[in-house]
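Morning F.,

Quick status update on the modeling queue. The single chain you submitted on Monday has been processed. Sequence for confirmation:
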Amino acid sequence: MRIGVNTYQLHTKITGAGRFAKNILRALSKIDRENEYILFLRKDNAGYYNINKENFTADICNVTRGTRFRRHFAFHFQLPHLARKYNLDLFWSPSDIIPFRPLPCLSSVTIHDLKRFVMPQEFPVADRRYYQFFMRNTSRNATLFFTVSESSGRDIMKYLDIPAERIVVVHNGLDPVLAEDEGIPLDSLRRIHGIRRKYILFVGQMLGIKNVPRMIRAFNRCKEAAEYDFVLLGQAGSGSHEIENTIRRESRFNDLGDRIHHIRWATTEQLASFYMNASALFYASLYEGFGFPLIEAMSFGVPIVASDCSSIPEVAGDAALLVDPTDEEAMAKALGRILTEEETRKTLAQRGHERVTQFSWENAAKKYLTVFHRLKQNQ
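Structure tokens below.
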């Protein structure tokens, strides 16, 4: 087969879709020597997503993520032309949508979540409407849909009216680069980021759906956490303003403001150190398609407090204390348990080490290949 892979929407920052595409392409390159892959790259992301193997060809478009109109035009109108030029058997988009202009071949897409449908109020109107319009176009025209959890699969059936037989669930894997990194010394991590105490960790972009203000309030009311810092590791986002206001309000009568650290970016070795030295991962998100930080924390033996909704129970299983993400008292109690009950910490860490072995990029790549071949045979 000749398979075209779209990366026009992806950037090189550490986000779910970008991390997925990088790792699944790397895994496919290791196990597949028979099929030919045409990688449609932008000039500013080619160095990140390109694969240097004989059966991988790079087609680099002279657009960048910053040239938004040109990028969208190239995606929706030039890519179908390139699909004809390369005589593709299958076009695959690892990030949610396919081009508006019809493709001359089979098409598949990986949908990571439907947060703009499930929680539309959390996104700017223009962003939401663009995504919803092109997702509905994709739902009509794509041959088959991959997704990363059973929870997201149910959302796809509900909001896009796609039947179950057109949906394939393939769980994400653990990033091998992070898993193998030895990190930097704790003293160095503290000096770089100004952290003075033991800490609780959250990893994710500062979006409203991440529920960070409630986590801050729960952290503040948790007496057992009084001697801990709270590290928020992730890019600024639409929820940043509310987070800052929450910190100001909650800090009026205590030192909370000095114990919360928003770190917008960290190297891979710093990220590994953040996990391996964390007392707990606090991940009470309102909605997740998968949740990479869950399996990352499990791989480092970090006990987890997480939400009991969307895909999180499916991914975390019994390796986390699951709570209602709208119940701040329950969140504070669960956090207190992890910080004071040594047996609970050990049990969760052990379960996490066992559970994380289920999430493998090689297994994910094998499932993708099986489905690609099935599509071709059934054409």
